[in-house]
Amino acid sequence: MGKGGMFSGPYFTDRKKKGLSQFEMMVAYLGGSAFQTVIDNPVTAYRQLVQQYAKDLSGKVVDPKIARMEANAVFKASPLSASLSGLGPRLIGVGFKRIPKFGFFIGISYFLSEGEQPGLAAATGASIFSAPFINPIRMIEKQQRAYFKQTGAQKPILEILRESKEYKFKPLFRGTLPLMGHSLASATTGLVGQPILQKKIEKYLKANSSVGSFGCNLISSAVVSPIYVAMTNPLSRLEVIMQTSSIKGKSITVMEAIGEVVRDSKEFGLRGVFRGQGIGIAKAVISLSMFHQGRIWCMDYFKDRNKRLGYVTSTQMA
Prior knowledge:
73% of the residues lie in helices and 0% in strands. It is an all-alpha fold. Helix 2 runs antiparallel to helix 5 (87-96), helix 10 (176-208) runs antiparallel to helix 11 (213-243) and helix 11 (213-243) packs across helix 12. It starts with 9 loop residues before the first helix and ends in a 10-residue tail after the last helix.
């Protein structure tokens, strides 16, 4: 490797662990995240609307069936706009959200010498330390969809930022605490648990069937997703409640958001607590599968490239 160049440090050149540098690992995770974001955006938008329409415009809690009908009406009226709503900030968030999260995730794992597959400690640290960077993007994404029922269009990002500026951008950090819990559940099940499960499934199925890597990825995601959604759906509800209220209005605290979910459960039982659960599982299967497939494609590309250019040996990649 050349010495003294801009990209000559160990972060870019040390490929002793699994034939990948830290930089290449980061790019692979970001590539997988971007691929996932584009594919799952319509499902993400629909799920938010189902959860957001838990209350009507007067603030009264409504039956989950009515909330689904409201969300369906929005998508029927503006299918393209609704499907693409929030995609801009989500793609921008691949940088602003994922670089901090994956940076802490891969960095802590590297410090702990965990190799290609980070563990629970890395997931926990990443979830806590990355939340303040991630939350503003999630807030903007949800605010874009918050007024579809009233206007039929997504709210411009600049308008959201101008409103937030009046309050010294404090509204952009609404929902940070639920996000930490959500992020931890996501990291432990999606980033740590799914790859471990996939390897076990691949080992079993390769010995007993002809199912390929993508099929194993899909199966492992389908197994992990219900667990992930059961853990995160109530937290996701809290985020939606806190982040879709008017920026100019009074902010909703975590306890007030919990109170809304409790009232919902009293009136509609578990259907009230787990609004969007079904679509959440579908989203999780799509999201996890697409993220890991994109990540694997990118990692395989870098491994092949490094081997072809003589940066690593077959022994290092074993």
